[in-house]
Design goal:
Helix 2 packs antiparallel against helix 3. Strands 1, 2, 10, 11, 12, 13 and 14 form a seven-stranded mixed β-sheet that branches. The protein has one domain: 4-Layer Sandwich (Deoxyribonuclease I, Chain A). The protein is of the alpha+beta class. Strand 7 and strand 8 form a beta hairpin. It is globular, with a radius of gyration of 21 Å. The chain has eight helices and 14 strands.
């Protein structure tokens, strides 16, 4: 739909970009419309860093998808950039008197937020990942996004879906790495690059990198619409992908949704709880049916030092009353219709994607 072009690491000759693309299933095309798309560059010195957004209408519900690539090593700057995105793209995509969060039913941010793990060394982080403690120790105790949100109120009103056990740190990985094999002793050391040499134009120094969750998906809804937009479990997402009816009562049961939502880490982290949520060794204590669809795609785009992430949401969309005309039926003023919305954040230099299946 749109993109922010620029140069940077690995792209001195050719340009890379932050972008977004919107896809819809063929049978959903009559009910899905891209209303507007626009972009915001963070400046010439920031290369391809910026934000690109598209507003999509599914029936009568509006969703804003925002693909971002935020500043690296500049935590305060990210809060400023987030506010700039909400103000500037809100004016470009909708009414200039309202910011992004105030004028659409649902908003999804996705992309490279550039938050790293802090106050831990690379070797120690690798040890936690290797023994299956990435989510019980590394993320809640060292993730700088959780800390930044708790201390500054950044991304207020946004929720991060519960992570799947295999959503390991998405950065910094070896480029051209082999397929991930967790049965191999020391597998994490073959995936994550904790020392590397900077390009000559940056000084050529040997740098340390701690594996971290740079690539994320955050979503928010107007308060009274929160029950109508929520992440699916992996089992539910696979049912939809296989063509199963999305309104299967057993598949989308309320108890199952509550159970899956209870796995979300930010709930305890932002409330200041003393102990992290324990996923168990390698997530072994989680019912597979309740694993989140919010996951990293670990063995795709291995040419990048990032891994893409993806999440599938269920949308209860307001339906156009005119849909109920025909076959002698009376119009229903306001009603709901199921839709499935997927958000995916690709590695920097590629487009993020949003898709809708009504």
């Amino acid at each position: 739909a749109d993109k922010v072009l620029g140069r940077g690491d690995g792209s001195l000759v050719s340009l890379k970009f932050t972008g977004i693309a919107v896809f819809a299933a063929h049978h959903a095309l009559p009910y899905v419309r891209v209303m507007r798309a626009d972009r915001l560059s963070f400046g010439a010195t920031e290369g391809s860093k910026g934000a690109v957004a598209a507003v999509v209408r599914v029936h009568r519900s509006t969703l804003a998808f925002v693909s971002v690539h935020l500043a690296s090593h500049k935590v305060p700057a990210r809060l400023v950039q987030y506010r700039d995105v909400c103000k500037s793209l809100g004016a470009k995509l909708g009414n200039s008197f309202f910011q992004l969060n105030e004028q659409f039913h649902h908003v999804v941010f996705m992309g490279d937020f550039n938050y790293r793990c802090e106050r831990i060394g690379g070797e120690e982080a690798l040890a936690l990942i290797r023994r299956g403690a990435a989510h019980s120790r590394l993320l809640p105790l060292h993730d700088s996004m959780l800390r930044h949100r708790a201390e500054t109120g950044a991304w207020d009103g946004y929720d991060e879906p519960p992570m799947a056990p295999t959503l390991w740190p998405t950065y910094k990985k070896y480029e051209q790495r082999p397929l991930t094999d967790t049965t191999v002793d020391g597998w994490a050391a073959g995936v994550y690059r904790i020392k590397f040499r900077e390009p000559v134009y940056k000084g050529g120094r040997v740098m340390d990198r701690v594996p971290g969750w740079c690539d994320r998906v955050l979503a928010r809804s107007h308060p009274h619409l929160r029950p109508y937009f929520f992440p699916l479990t992996r089992d539910e997402a696979e049912r939809v992908a296989s063509g199963a009816a999305p309104d299967d009562a057993e598949s989308f049961s309320e108890p199952q949704r509550r159970a899956a939502s209870s796995l979300a880490l930010p709930a305890w982290a932002l409330s200041g709880a003393a102990e992290p949520l324990d996923y168990g060794e390698d997530g072994a204590d989680i019912d597979p049916r309740l694993e989140s669809s919010y996951d990293s795609v670990n063995d795709v785009l291995t040419v990048s030092d990032h891994s893409p992430v993806r999440c599938v949401f269920r949308l209860l969309a307001f339906r156009d009353p005119m849909d109920d005309f025909g076959d002698g039926l009376d119009a229903v003023p306001v009603c709901l219709r199921d839709a499935v919305v997927a958000a995916a954040s690709a590695a920097p230099g590629a487009a993020a994607a949003a898709s809708a299946v009504a």
